[in-house]
């Protein structure tokens, strides 16, 4: 298992909008550049307690979260005692929501993660030919894979989830470049990124510059970006890190209905953490914002 940050706050603002997008947009081909495992054995840590466990306990109190696709997926992961026993990674979320209505392409450098995806696909009775796994850099592979199906671009969804968004692949593209290239041809695309107080400004300088250079426009590619961040992030006395201090999803070619649904989920997620307290006694409250592009 290569991903040690599963079920933490960063996964919430990745999988919560992702599940809703997949349900509303219903792509016929789903691709991931950095897939991770399909599922993880769920154990307690303070980071996961603050992440999925707090969400699962509180989400039912809020209208949009209560009926969200993400919460529905989490309910399928309960054990006989009604507690969460596994955490669904994005491959499992996609395969649960799209089932046999889609084909899948998953990339990861970790072979065990890909084996896990294959095993879960079998359990979900997804036909083997419909699930392609590549033990390779997904930035390179997905760029080539999608280019072979670009005539059906509007039916393709690509999830870009890099550990280092500015790192370049063999094809000299980084994750932001790939987001732009796919968005321009009409592929529905989501780029997840994490940051701390120092990283965000430099990351967004690159994002804005790349969007301009690649001629990606809000009006043409239907861009939307939503971020959540811990309010204590800029406090120099804040001493804990729950995985990420802030994270965002940059999306393209989504319908206005889908964007509105994601915005509503972000607004209600803030309420889940309104009275949250970290183990050191500091506030775990978050804020959510849509970014002007």
The helicity comes to: 40-55%
Number of domains: 1
Give the spatial strand order of the biggest sheet: 5-4-1-6-7-9-8-10
Structural class: alpha/beta
What would the average pLDDT be, to the nearest integer?
94
CATH class: Alpha Beta
Shape: globular
Keywords:
Rossmann fold, alpha/beta, 293 residues, 10 strands
Fold and architecture overview:
There is one protein chain. The protein is of the alpha/beta class and 293 residues long. It has helices spanning 9-25, 46-58, 63-66, 69-75, 90-98, 111-123, 138-147, 175-184, 199-213, 218-221, 256-272; strands at 29-32, 39-41, 86-88, 103-107, 131-134, 156-160, 188-195, 224-230, 246-252, 286-290. The strands form two sheets. The chain has an eight-stranded mixed β-sheet, sandwiched between helices. Helix 1 runs parallel beside helix 5 and helix 1 runs antiparallel to helix 11 (256-272). The protein is globular.
Tell me the layout of helices and strands:
Blueprint: H1 9-25, E1 29-32, E2 39-41, H2 46-58, H3 63-66, H4 69-75, E3 86-88, H5 90-98, E4 103-107, H6 111-123, E5 131-134, H7 138-147, E6 156-160, H8 175-184, E7 188-195, H9 199-213, H10 218-221, E8 224-230, E9 246-252, H11 256-272, E10 286-290
Parallel strand pairs: 1-4, 1-6, 4-5, 6-7
Antiparallel strand pairs: 2-3, 7-9, 8-9, 8-10
Helix pairs in contact: 1-2, 1-4, 1-5, 1-11
């Amino acid at each position: 298992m290569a991903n040690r940050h599963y079920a933490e706050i960063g996964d919430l603002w990745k999988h919560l909008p992702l599940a809703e997008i997949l349900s509303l947009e219903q792509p016929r081909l789903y691709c991931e550049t950095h897939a991770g495992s399909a599922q993880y054995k769920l154990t307690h840590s303070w980071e996961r307690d603050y992440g999925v466990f707090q969400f699962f306990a509180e989400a039912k109190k809020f209208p949009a979260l209560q009926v969200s696709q993400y919460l529905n997926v989490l309910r399928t992961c309960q054990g006989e005692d009604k507690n969460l026993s596994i955490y669904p990674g994005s491959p499992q979320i996609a395969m649960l929501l799209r089932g046999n209505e889609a084909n899948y392409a998953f990339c990861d450098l970790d072979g065990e993660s890909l084996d896990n995806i294959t095993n879960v696909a079998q359990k979900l009775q997804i036909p083997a030919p419909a699930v392609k796994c590549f033990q390779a850099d997904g930035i390179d592979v997905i760029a080539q894979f999608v280019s072979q199906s670009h005539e059906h671009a509007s039916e393709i969804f690509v999830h870009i989830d890099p550990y280092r968004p500015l790192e370049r692949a063999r094809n000299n593209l980084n994750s932001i470049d790939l987001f732009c290239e796919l968005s321009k041809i009409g592929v529905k695309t989501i780029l997840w990124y994490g940051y701390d107080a120092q990283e965000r400004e430099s990351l967004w300088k690159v994002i804005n510059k790349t969007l301009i250079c690649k001629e990606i426009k809000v009006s043409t590619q239907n861009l939307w970006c939503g971020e959540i961040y811990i309010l204590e992030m800029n406090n120099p006395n804040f001493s804990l890190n729950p995985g990420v201090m802030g994270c965002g999803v940059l999306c393209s070619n989504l319908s206005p209905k889908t964007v509105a649904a994601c915005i509503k989920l972000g607004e209600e997620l803030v309420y889940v953490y309104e009275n949250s307290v970290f183990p050191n006694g500091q506030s775990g409250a978050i804020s959510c914002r849509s970014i002007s592009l």
